[in-house]
C-alpha cells in the first residue's frame, strides 16, 4: 500500500519508503523525509530554507532578539469607549460622570474598572490619539487589522499573517496564526494567501474543533488506505497537476497536526488554578492564557476577541461589565509574560476598530468615533510607560499628536523587526508595502 | 352527540392529513425536462461555436500543442453542474442523463441546468460578489439577501444582461422595494450622513461592468493605460447627484467635489465619460445616461467584461486575468472577441452565451492526458484546468452527494432548511475567499480538518434514514453495485477496476456492518483531491 507521501518527488518516494506502514504518517521523521508535507503553514517549499535562515539570523544578530517574535492581539470588537478605558477625562462634560484612577506610572490615569491594569502600567504604553478614516464596523475593523483602508482590488494581510510570512518558525505542527473566540472578521492572510488566515477556535474550555478523529485507530487508518486508492485513480494521467494542487500535502499536514503534542497548548486546564483565576474564569480570560501558551510553542500571532463594545445605549454600565472581563485578563497576561521573561519577545496590542463619541446620546450611549481613540501596547520592542497623544477635554476632533492607523502598524511591525519598506507583489502584480505608515519613535524602545 | 364526535374526528383527521401532506409530500417522479433543440442547431449558433473552436485550433497549431482528448460526458456534466449550480449532479439526474441518446445528452443537460432555479440563484451569488462585493455593507441601508434574490429572479426570468445592469446603475427607490438600488446604497457613508460614495460607485461600474480597473486613477494617473485621474473623477461625477433619503436612492441636484490627494484641495468635477462619448445620450438623469453608455451594444468593453466573467465561472479561470481588468493593449484570446460580438449581437442573452461556451471544444476537453500536461497547455487552454472548488460548491456537493434524489427547490422544506443552515455554518468554517474569486490557490489545513473530522460530513455520511449511504447499502443488489452507485453519487463516475476491487473486497469484510463500510467509502470519496477540485 502506497502511503500518502506519493506526491513527493521521486527522490523521496523510494521503494523502501513506499512500503512503509501508515503509522509513519504520525511521526515526526515523516516531516524530514517529505519536505513538502509539514510545511504548508508557510509557502510550502520555503520551509527548510526559512528554518536555516532563522537559525542563522538569530545566531549572527543577537540584537534581533530584542524585537518581538510573537504578537498577542486583544481585539475589542465593537469599538470600546476611550473615555471609559484608557483615556478618562474626569470632571469634564464629556466624562459624563466617569472618574479616573491613578496608575503605577505617575501622571497617567485610567478609567475606574481597570485597577489591575493600572498596577501593570509600568509595562504598558498607550496611544490616546488614534485617528482612522473609517466609521463603519467592518471597514474600520479591516483598517485596524491590516493598517490599510479597504481596497476593492487587493486584500491586505493582517498583522499576524505578515508575522508568519516574515518570521517563519520551524517545527511547529499547529497553525502559527490563531484566532481564539473569533469575532465577525477574523484576521486574514490577504494577498499572502489563505494559508495565512488565522486558525479559528473557540473557548479553550472545549477541545479544538475537528482535530480528533471520530473513529477507532484501525478504522481511521483503513480510511486513509481507502483514500489512497481513490487518489491514485485520479492522479493517473494527471500526476503533475494533482501534485500542484498540494491537496495531499495538506491532508498530510492536517494529520500531522492531529497527532501533535503542541495541540495541548490550547488546553489551559493544566495551568495552576490560581493563575487561571487571575486571568478570569471567562472565555476571554482562558483564551488569553491559551494565547500565552501558544506563543511558547512557536505560534507567531494569537488574536483574542472580546465582543460587546458597541455601546450605542447604556454605555457606562456596559463598559463596566466588559472591564470586569478585560481588566484581569489584560493585567495578568502582561504580568505573566513578564514573570516568565517572555515579555521582551511578545508584543501585546489591545485595540478595537474605533472609539466612541465624547457626547453621550439620549439613550445614555456613545456612538462611533474614529477621531481620537486609544490603544494599549506592551512588551517586545515597545517603550514601557510611554503615552502618546491627547484628546481634547471638551470633545473636539483632531487630538494632539495624532497617530493614523497606518503609523500604528508601522510601529508594531518595526517592533517585530520587520522591514516595512520592502515591496511585495500581489497576485495581480500590484506592488504593496506591508505598511505605508511611519513608525512612532516615542513608542519604540531606543 | 354523534355529530360532534364526527366533526371532531374529521377536523383532527383533516388537520393530520394537511400536516402530513406538508411534512411528507408525495414525491412524483420528475418529468424529463426538454431542451430547446432549434437554438442549438441555428446557423449562427453553430458558426459562433465553430469560430471559437477554430481560434483555439489556430493557437494550438501555431504553438505546436496537441490538445488533450475530450472528457467523458459525465465529467462534462459534472463541471457544468458545479460551474452553474454549485453542486454535483444527483444520482437521479445521472440516471436520466444516461437514458438519453448520446447526441442529446449535453444539450439536454445544459438546458436542464439553465432552467433550474438553483443555477439562477448560484449565478446571482457569484455575480453579486462582483457587483456589490462581499462585505456586509452598511446596516439597514443595504440588504444583501434581498439584492441576491432579486438578481436571481432576473436571471431566472431570462432578462437580458444589459437591462439588469441598467437597473443596477440607474434605479431610484428604497433598497427593500427596489432591490437594484442596493448597488448604490452599499456605498453609503455613515460619516457623510449616509450619502453614497461616487468614487466607490465609479470603481464598481468600471471594474464589474467594463472590465477596467480605473480605481487606481482614483489617487494617481494610471500606471500604464491612458486613464487620467481626471477621467476617473469625471466618471464619478455621474453619481454626484445621487442621494439617499427617506424615499431611498434618488437623483436630485448637487455636484461631485473631487479631492486632490496630494494637496487635499477639492474642486467640482463635471460628468464626462473617458471614451466613446458619442454613445452617451443627452436625455435622462446622470445615472441613466451613464447606464445607457456603459451597457451600449457598441461599447465593446461591456460585452467583453461579461464574457470574461462567465467564462471564468464555467472554466474556473478567465480568458484574461484578472477577471475585471481587460487592458486594451494586453493580448486576449480571439475567443473573447468572438464571444463578445455574439453576446452583443444577440441582445446580451446570458443563456445563449452559456450554451455556446458549454458547446465549445475547450469546455469539453479532458483534464488528464497520457502525456504530461504543462503550463503551456494551461495557457493555451489545451486541457481543462483543475480548479479548487469554492466553499459553497463543496458544501453543495457534500449535501447533494449524500442524497440519491435531487435536492432543489422542489425538495422538502425541511431538507432545504437543513441545507441552508448547514451551508452557512460550513462556509464560515471552511473560509470564504472573498471578492478575489479566481485566485487558483491551494486549500488550507483547517479545510482538510473540517472535511476529515467535521460534524457536517459525519452527519451526512452516517447511517441514517435519508442518507445516501444507508439507502445504497439497503437497496443495492450486491457489493459491486453499491460501490458503483456510491462513485456515481459522489464523483459522477464509475470506479476503475482497481477501485472497484478494493472497495468490493472491503465491503465483504464482516468486522464492520455494510452501512459502516459505505460510510468509510463516502468518507474517502469526499476527502479526495478529485472531489475538491473541479476537473
Spell out the blueprint of helices and strands.
The complex is a heterodimer of chains A (446) and B (535).
Chain A: H1 15-18, H2 28-33, H3 47-60, E1 70-77, E2 101-102, E3 109-110, H4 115-119, E4 124-131, H5 137-146, H6 159-166, E5 177-180, E6 199-201, H7 217-235, H8 239-245, H9 247-258, H10 273-279, H11 283-296, E7 301-307, H12 315-339, E8 346-351, E9 355-356, E10 368-369, E11 371-379, E12 387-388, E13 403-404, H13 405-415, E14 423-425, E15 431-433
Parallel strand pairs in A: 1-7, 1-8, 4-12, 4-13, 5-6, 5-7
Antiparallel strand pairs in A: 2-3, 4-11, 8-11, 9-10, 14-15
Chain B: H1 2-23, H2 37-41, H3 43-63, H4 73-85, H5 91-99, H6 102-115, H7 117-132, H8 144-156, H9 161-170, H10 182-185, H11 198-210, H12 229-236, E1 242-245, E2 248-251, E3 256-259, E4 266-269, H13 286-294, H14 300-315, H15 334-345, H16 350-359, H17 375-379, E5 387-388, H18 391-401, H19 413-430, H20 445-453, H21 455-461, H22 468-475, H23 479-491, H24 497-508, H25 514-526, H26 529-532, E6 533-534
Antiparallel strand pairs in B: 1-2, 3-4, 5-6
Helix pairs in contact in B: 3-15, 3-16, 4-6, 6-16, 7-8, 9-13, 11-12, 11-14, 14-15, 14-16, 18-19, 20-21, 22-23, 22-25, 23-24, 23-25, 24-25
